[in-house]
Amino acid sequence: MAITLPAGFQDMLPDDAEFYRQFVALAHDVFSRYGYRSIITPHLEVQDLFVRGIGQSSDVVSKEMFSALSGENMQKLLAREEIRSKSKLALRPEGTAGVVRAVVEHNLVPPQSAGVKLMYAGSMFRAERPQKGRLREFNQIGVECIGPSSPSIDAEGICMLMRFFSALGIPETSMKLFLNSLGCDECRPAYRQQLLSYMNAHIHELCDECQHRLHLNPLRAFDCKNEQCAAVMRNAPRLSDALCSACATHHQTVQTLLDNAGISYELDTSLVRGLDYYTRTVFEIQATDSNSAQNALGGGGRYDKLVEEVGGHPTPGFGFALGYERCKLALEAAGVASHVPPSCHVFFALADTCLFKEAFTMCEQLRSKGFACEFAHDAKSLKSQLKLANKLGARMVVVYGENEFARGEVLVKDMQQHEEHCVTHSTQALVSYLSAHF
Ligand SMILES: [Zn+2]
Ligand SMILES: [Zn+2]
């Protein structure tokens, strides 16, 4: 029996994989204009990194992490009751923690330095129940700016992400930007107390999960999809009303800079994002055409405590991530092409198979001149070769026939204009003819 993919995983077939490659290239192009450079970190990290970085109370860590044991001494480890935490590995559920770990480990941001701007692209993993629009391995692109604390970094990052989505072709009317502030160590604890007493007063109206979260991270209750919880949380005190003056100024500056850049947004005081590490700015861009619950195209925020959490010097940070699969759905909903068909400039066809070697040599010559060429490898009838050329989207077909070839020529068929001309069989003549006709 044939072996098939496990549930929740998918293959990226050529039309899609090619689109993904261009998607990542476009992100590099846009983000590098803002000074972001690539970093590549492993898919596997020590599990503690995510527990400490993302937070034990987040769904990602408590329910959705793919865990593994370090391969060496696996049998010995399994036999032991207490497995050393260093031997527990996890497939990365998100990109930020690994990048921050690398920044700390390689001291990319020494004290007093200007900081570092990094971008990544790759697979992330969540061991959740597979459902529509949610994969166990999915693709994300993200950036992290570690060092500066200025609100202009937050505003710049948001502008950059909106610019990327526009460059991708998602219409502005199909997206909405939501913005909030989650405060800092100065203002959050007092607010937390205020929220706790409010939630305690309504404890019997909250779902089990929210009752449990109450002690870990009560803010997460704003994210609860339960109707009754949502009703309770609608009247809960908001952090935006309890920000310290530094946080309030930061929040206001981000808004002013976005206003000046002509980026529209909506303040959403219930936006908390799923991860525990955010401080001050959080934002999310949602697809408005989507009728699914999974409509966030991307989002992120400031994480001024995370570097310290991972073991570095206290260093502020800001970042965001965007989901490739979600963006693809948004493009499809907006009627924008989200796949790349095969591209072939010139197809080399054989009317007479005895000219096989001459055609092969010329095909190789034209490739060296920059043309995307395909060759009739398993040439059958000329008709079937032309059919294949059409399927490959070939713009021109060079036909090798004995009569023309005896005169030192080949027949070049323009598949769009439905014209054909005899052209001298030399690299130079073919290059100049093709260049003039593309
Ligand atoms: Zn504050
Ligand atoms: Zn709830």
Structural features, described:
The chain has helices spanning 14-32, 47-54, 59-62, 74-79, 96-105, 151-168, 188-201, 208-216, 227-234, 245-260, 306-309, 324-333, 356-368, 382-391, 402-406, 427-437, and strands at residues 37-38, 44-46, 66-69, 88-91, 116-125, 137-146, 175-181, 266-267, 279-287, 296-302, 317-323, 346-350, 373-375, 396-400, 409-414, 419-424. Helix 13 (356-368) links the parallel strand 12 (346-350) and strand 13 (373-375). Helix 1 runs antiparallel to helix 6. The chain is elongated and about 95 Å long. It folds into two domains: 14-187 and 243-333, Bira Bifunctional Protein, Domain 2 (BirA Bifunctional Protein, domain 2); 346-437, Rossmann fold. It is an alpha+beta fold and 438 residues long. The strands form three sheets. The chain has an eight-stranded mixed β-sheet with strand order 1-5-6-11-10-9-7-8, sandwiched between helices. Strands 13-12-14-15-16 form a five-stranded mixed β-sheet, sandwiched between helices. The chain binds zinc ion (ZN) (2 copies).
- Please give the oligomerization state of what you see: single chain
Bound molecules: zinc ion
- How helix-rich are the residues, as a percent range? 25-40%
**Going by CATH, what is the homologous superfamily of the largest domain?**
Bira Bifunctional Protein, Domain 2
Q: Predict the CATH topology of the largest domain.
A: BirA Bifunctional Protein, domain 2
- Derived from helix and strand composition plus strand pairing, the structural class reads alpha+beta
Roughly how many Å apart are the termini?
Answer: 48 Å
- Approximate shape: elongated
CATH architectural name of the largest domain: 2-Layer Sandwich
CATH classification, class level of the largest domain? Alpha Beta
Radius of gyration: 28 Å
